[in-house]
Amino acid sequence: MSENQQPKAYDAVLGGQSPPSEGAAVLGGIEGAKLRLSNSNAQVRITALHQALNYGEAGLDLVLKALEDKSAEVQIQAYYLLAPLSEQKVKRVLQGLNPQGLKYEPIEVVTVNRRGEITQRQQRFAKYFVEDLGNRINLEMAAIPGGTFIMGTPEAEKLDGIVRDKSQPQHQVSVKPFYIGKFTVTQAQWKAVAKLPKIEQDLDPDPSYFKGYNNPVDKVSWYDAVEFCTRLLRATGKEYRLPSEAEWEYACRARTTTPFYYGETITSDLANYKATNSYADEPLGEYREKNTPVGLFPPNVFGLYDMHGNVLEWCQDSWHENYNGAPTDGTAWIDNNDYYINYYHRHHNAMRSLYDSRILRGGSRRHNPYTCRSANRFAGVRGESASSRGFRIACDIF
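and the corresponding structure tokens:
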């Protein structure tokens, strides 16, 4: 080594922000891995994780410690490095993190500004349990942590007063942990469950207008969706049901307070809706005029897809004109004061049992962006179906 190439003290690469210059001395071994794992750059720490496993027990301990890293990206890499290992202490730690044996899946979450431009990409974990419906058809259910959120539309959100009034007053709601479908129920899943024994009513195995194995099932009524949940409950012993309206909004928002879980607006690159209308300052986009397969667009932080647009989603709750008197514990609000019940009681008393209403959420392919917001709500006659209506199911923690 020439005199100019002799390493100096400051040449040692201890996890610096920049790659080493030619001739720099690189601190290796377990001590080098430790130093790189303390670096502020998450990518440097991820590289160090792969190196740490070369150093036996001490390196393994470093990777285990990285499960608590402040960066979700580092946590994800640590988990996937550890998951194939057979050491007992690794199994104990991972079991402690995941006592229910959930499937961990890396996801990318995006945030947009008012112009619809992606300003942030985050690597996250989503956690699911998988229900085997037979014939290689699975139903994935995302684990939703409990928490408290503000439900309803804030005054600042851009929309007309009538729609705002129906999702006000804003109120604090506490939600217990639960599971909810990663996707809306697909046509493949629907056919699998439609074969199960009847509980209260028959199910058409192929009701959808927009056909497709991975398309959301559509043209299903609230009663159809409840029958689906009840058949699955009987077959599995798990408490499958429709989500409450509060659970749906909590899961959709996924800790955001913006109009959409993507941020201040949406675009046709992020959801299937009538993008020939704009919400904020984003450019106009594509109006597809049909339902699209589930999972085409980025998920929210909880690992849920298509909560904005594609198909409306049935909830348990009765329709109420506003949130005055709404529950604050996340449970469904069900009573005999339904808008459509009252209307048809006055005008068509004999049809009262058919024309009552339940909540629909999320908007659909045919809706303007403001009706696809996290807080927006619709009333739907529960005995009626449409090509813009589907559902996703929820399940109690077991």
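(Above: one complete record from the training split.) The first helix runs from residue 29 to 37.
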